């Protein structure tokens, strides 16, 4: 009889990581952060449980995209009212709310269910270099999204 693996309770103690998004590629960074939020970087990964860690992203305003995405990539939101669709480009949204770009990219890579919504609450994104989570003693995590080093 097959048994479902459930990790031991003492291994579920989440860590906190700080990731600097300055000069990083949006999609590559988002996929790495989504893996950390889900816990896929741990040997105790279980698909139906929250085994991931907390992630703090700083310098979201300095995220990079390739090609013509800065002027052609569109972000849509709907108010729920008839004719309530609002559209704006990457560049406009980056000037207005740079955190939302990173949040939307990561949210799209998480499960579309209650587990995904719970995992998303473990993500903290800030436009500038400062964050209010010093009490959690987060570790700095280096992620290289540009082949050959930083740009």
TrEMBL record:
An MF annotation (GO) of this entry: mRNA binding
Function (record text): This protein is one of the early assembly proteins of the 50S ribosomal subunit, although it is not seen to bind rRNA by itself. It is important during the early stages of 50S assembly.
Record's keyword annotation contains Ribosomal protein: yes
Any one cellular-component term (Gene Ontology): cytosolic large ribosomal subunit
GO biological process, one term: translation
Subunit annotation: Part of the 50S ribosomal subunit.
Keyword Transcription: no
Keywords noted in UniProt: Ribonucleoprotein, Ribosomal protein
Top-level taxon: Bacteria
InterPro entries membership: Ribosomal_uL13, Ribosomal_uL13_bac-type, Ribosomal_uL13_CS, Ribosomal_uL13_sf
HAMAP family: Ribosomal_uL13
Name of the protein this chain belongs to: Large ribosomal subunit protein uL13
Species this chain originates from: Oxynema aestuarii AP17
Highest classification ranks of the organism: Bacteria, Bacillati, Cyanobacteriota, Cyanophyceae, Oscillatoriophycideae
Family the UniProt entry places it in: Belongs to the universal ribosomal protein uL13 family.
């Amino acid at each position: 009889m097959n048994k479902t693996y459930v990790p031991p309770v003492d291994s579920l103690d989440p860590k906190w990581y700080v990731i600097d998004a300055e000069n990083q590629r949006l999609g590559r960074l988002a996929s790495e952060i989504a893996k950390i939020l889900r816990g896929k970087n741990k040997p105790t990964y279980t698909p139906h449980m929250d085994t991931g860690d907390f992630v703090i992203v700083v310098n979201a305003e300095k995220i990079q995209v390739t090609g013509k995405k800065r002027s052609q990539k569109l972000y849509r939101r709907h108010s729920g009212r008839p004719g309530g669709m609002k559209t704006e480009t990457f560049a406009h949204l980056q000037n207005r709310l740079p955190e939302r770009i990173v949040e939307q990219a990561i949210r799209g890579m998480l499960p579309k269910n209650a587990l995904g919504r719970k995992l998303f609450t473990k993500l903290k994104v800030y436009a500038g270099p400062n964050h209010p989570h010093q009490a959690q003693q987060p570790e700095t995590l280096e992620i290289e999204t540009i082949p050959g080093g930083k740009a």
